[in-house]
């Protein structure tokens, strides 16, 4: 293990994606981790178990992933920044309480290092098979933020971004990485602490007597009091009014709450969404990719350009909310869109929805091998024929 | 006099979210007695209510969290204990109490219960045991006695129930007691004691369910059930939890476990202090 003598790391480090994620969390101010070991996310838990006590944080290994996410919600309600990390099977177990976190507006981060599914699937192999589960895994209508890192550096940077988004919008935020990114070792440059942007949740200005725990501010996000601060408020997974009072049969309250919970993401989508655009201006073919796949896609687009083929890349850093408007604009300008994914066709559906009549081609991969640039180049050539 | 005036004058009114009344519980239900004992215990201990957190799961008794005038959270079914664990570890200053049902804590949430007890997490768990799933209309659960009638045991239950105090003791709880809603003073004392203990404490409250379970099993009206509790309750402090039986003939009540053991929070703080000290030394070098 490399030498550490600072609360948060800075400078150049050689880290795996999982370790960079843990360091990013600590840099973001995460001081509570509740988890349950699972390949390929275990190293995040191991790093947190070692690091958190050094910074006065709490690591607890819960009895399962249901307990993990429940404990993380509890910790979040005391004002601590809290996270858990898992993979497919554990992510499935968390779904009900992801809905609870959405409903009670608990800021927290869930890392899912995706492996091959369904079920126990291929524990040590990569996948991007939880993309739709990330969006729709819990019951009811809701919106979620999910972010897909494509390098070890981004495992650090985007973990911080996840915490910042969670705190800004009072939502659970998902970091959706894959086994390759989680286990890959790369150089990470960590800026000095003062240069890292850290966002903390807004506290209420109202006096405890006047405080309404679910009364939104202008951006639709309610300021958050924490347990033990004297506000004496109640939160519930039941549909509730601004007071937090259960409203189990009111049509009006159901509409008001569900729409606000969705709209605080939908209406702020432009601020949330991050993408990277590469040579799309004059492109005839667009490749839309995320995570590990986007690295091969970038290389393919550059190779195609060398061959004088007008190819461009839209790399999705934010997967959810989906940048549908941008995809529609791109679709209006190109002849075809290619979506390489390590699944049997998930985000491609969302691209198709946005692309309308522009042809969209799925380049599917299942199992160990990620896409090779050459395969994507061939696909680009093929669709232009 | 209006009902609300009466409530305002009740000595424990400050503990209740009065604007949330009327509650959802049936007439004769034991949940109100449990809550009253809890309030009484808080009152006697003069705890700072700003530092008390009540967590419930889902069920009739799960609504308790919404009625208490302290910070409170109504989690998903079965998850009150892990939520409470997160709260307590993240802010050890808080007094964290879980109030939930037999189904919530011992069926869907059973695994969390035994592990929180094993870790000796410093939370207090009060269980309203009404021998069935009241909220969903009276199905059998993990404490339903063998042979009892419920909507899903139309031929009588063929499952052996848990003895909750035995389970709690075997899992590592430092304080374990059982009372029925008849022994309110003893119950209040036990809750008081549980709140004062370091570590995982468990109080089981045998509670009437006059509209559902008691009706299916022809146990009579709420008053008759209380009379029956009186008849068959037998105090046996220190009784081996395994032998603390609940049957048609007798309900053994009392304090069964009262031991000392370092809580998870204490061990965590000790470890963190050790780690931080050596970390600071490394830093200084
Ligand atoms: C995951 C899940 N499964 C089932 C239910 C339905 N449900 C609600 S309350 C309950 C049983 C509650 O029983 P208990 O904990 O004994 O509380 P009581 O209602 O008897 O007070 C069930 C099964 C649910 N809400 N969530
Ligand atoms: Mg019950």
Give a short summary of the structure:
With 385 residues, chain A is an alpha/beta fold. Chain A is built from 13 helices and 16 strands.
Tell me the CATH architecture of the largest domain in chain A.
3-Layer(aba) Sandwich
| Strand content bin of chain B | 15-25%
User: Which radius of gyration of chain B do the C-alpha atoms yield?
Assistant: 19 Å
The helix-and-strand class of chain A reads alpha/beta
Q: What does the average pLDDT of chain B come to?
A: 95
What does this structure look like?
The complex is a heterodimer of chains A (385) and B (285). In chain A, the strands form three sheets. In chain A, strands 2, 3, 4, 5, 6, 7, 8 and 14 form an eight-stranded mixed sheet that branches. Chain A has helices at residues 17-28, 42-51, 65-77, 88-103, 131-136, 152-169, 179-183, 251-266, 269-272, 292-306, 324-333, 347-355, 373-384; strands at 11-16, 30-35, 58-61, 81-86, 108-116, 122-126, 145-147, 172-178, 185-190, 234-236, 275-278, 285-289, 311-316, 318-320, 336-341, 360-364. The longest helix of chain A has 18 residues, at 152-169. Chain A is globular and about 70 Å long. By secondary structure, chain A is α/β, with parallel strands linked by helices. Chain B is of the alpha/beta class and 285 residues long. Chain B has one domain (3-284): Thiamin diphosphate (ThDP)-binding fold, Pyr/PP domains (Rossmann fold). An eight-stranded mixed sheet of chain B has the order 2-1-3-4-6-5-8-7, sandwiched between helices. In chain B, α3 links the parallel β1 (52-56) and β2 (71-74). In chain B, α2 (31-45) packs across α8, α5 (102-108) crosses α6 and α6 (110-119) packs across α7 (164-171). The longest helix of chain B has 21 residues, at 264-284. Chain B is globular. Chain B starts with a helix and ends with a helix. At the A-B interface, β2, α3, α4 and β10 of A face β2, α4, α6 and α11 of B. The structure holds thiamine diphosphate and magnesium ion (MG). Magnesium ion is lined by residues 59, 101-103, 130, 132-134 of chain B.
């Amino acid at each position: 293990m490399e030498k550490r003598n600072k609360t948060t790391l800075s400078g150049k480090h050689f880290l795996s994606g999982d370790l960079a994620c843990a360091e990013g969390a600590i840099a973001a101010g995460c001081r509570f981790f509740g988890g349950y070991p699972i390949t390929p996310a275990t190293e995040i838990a191991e790093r947190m178990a070692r690091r958190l006590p050094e910074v006065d944080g709490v690591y607890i290994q819960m009895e399962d992933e249901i307990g993990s996410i429940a404990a993380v919600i509890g910790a979040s309600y005391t004002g601590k920044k809290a996270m858990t990390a898992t993979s497919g099977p554990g992510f499935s177990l968390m779904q009900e309480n992801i809905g609870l976190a959405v409903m009670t507006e608990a800021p927290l981060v869930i890392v899912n290092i995706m492996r091959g599914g369904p079920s126990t699937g291929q524990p040590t192999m990569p996948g991007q098979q939880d993309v739709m589960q990330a969006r729709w895994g819990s019951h009811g209508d809701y919106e979620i933020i999910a972010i897909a890192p494509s390098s070890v550096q981004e495992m650090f940077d985007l973990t911080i971004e996840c915490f910042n988004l969670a705190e800004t919008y009072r939502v659970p935020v998902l970091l959706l990485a894959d086994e390759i990114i989680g286990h890959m070792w790369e150089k990470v440059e960590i800026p000095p602490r003062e240069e890292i942007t850290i966002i903390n949740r807004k506290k209420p200005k109202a006096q405890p007597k006047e405080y309404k725990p679910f009364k939104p501010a202008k951006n639709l996000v309610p300021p958050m009091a924490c347990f033990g601060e004297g506000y004496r408020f109640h939160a519930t997974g039941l549909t509730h009014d601004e007071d937090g009072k259960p409203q189990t049969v009111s049509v009006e309250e159901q509409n008001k709450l569900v729409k606000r919970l969705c709209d605080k993401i939908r209406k702020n989508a432009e601020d949330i969404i991050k993408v990277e655009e590469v040579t799309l201006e004059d492109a005839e073919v667009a490749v839309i990719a995320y995570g590990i796949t986007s690295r091969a896609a970038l290389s393919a687009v550059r190779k195609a350009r060398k061959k004088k083929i007008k190819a461009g890349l839209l790399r999705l850093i934010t997967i959810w909310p989906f940048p549908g408007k941008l995809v529609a604009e791109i679709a209006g300008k190109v002849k075809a869109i290619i979506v390489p994914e390590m699944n049997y066709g998930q985000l491609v559906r969302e691209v198709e929805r946005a692309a309308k009549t522009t042809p969209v081609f799925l380049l599917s991969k299942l199992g160990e091998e990620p896409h090779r640039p050459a395969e994507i180049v061939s696909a680009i050539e093929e669709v232009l024929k | 006099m209006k009902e609300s005036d009466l409530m305002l004058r009740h000595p424990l009114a400050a503990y209740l979210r009065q604007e949330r009344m009327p509650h959802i519980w049936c007439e004769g239900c034991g949940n109100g007695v449990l809550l009253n004992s809890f309030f009484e215990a808080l009152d006697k201990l003069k705890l700072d209510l700003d530092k008390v957190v009540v967590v419930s799961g889902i069920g009739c008794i799960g609504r308790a969290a919404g009625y208490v005038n302290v910070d409170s959270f109504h989690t998903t079914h079965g998850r009150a204990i892990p939520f409470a664990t997160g709260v307590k570890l993240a802010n050890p200053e808080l007094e964290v109490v879980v109030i939930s049902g037999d189904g919530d804590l011992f069926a869907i949430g059973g695994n969390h219960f035994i592990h929180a007890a094993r870790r000796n997490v410093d939370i207090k768990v009060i269980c309203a045991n009404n021998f069935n799933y009241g909220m969903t209309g009276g199905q059998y659960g993990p404490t339903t006695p063998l042979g009892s009638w419920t909507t899903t045991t139309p031929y009588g239950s063929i499952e052996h129930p848990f003895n909750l105090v035995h389970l709690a003791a075997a899992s590592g709880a430092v304080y374990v007691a059982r009372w029925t809603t008849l022994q309110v003073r003893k119950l209040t004392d036990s809750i008081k004691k549980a709140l004062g203990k370091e570590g995982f404490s468990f109080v089981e409250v045998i509670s009437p369910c006059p509209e559902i379970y008691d009706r299916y099993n022809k146990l009579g009206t709420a008053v008759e059930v209380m009379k029956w509790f009186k008849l068959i309750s037998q105090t046996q402090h220190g009784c081996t939890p395994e032998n603390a039986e609940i049957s048609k003939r007798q309900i053994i009540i009392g304090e069964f476990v009262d031991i000392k053991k370092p809580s998870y929070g204490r061990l965590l703080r000790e470890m963190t202090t050790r780690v931080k000290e050596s970390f600071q030394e490394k830093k200084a070098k």
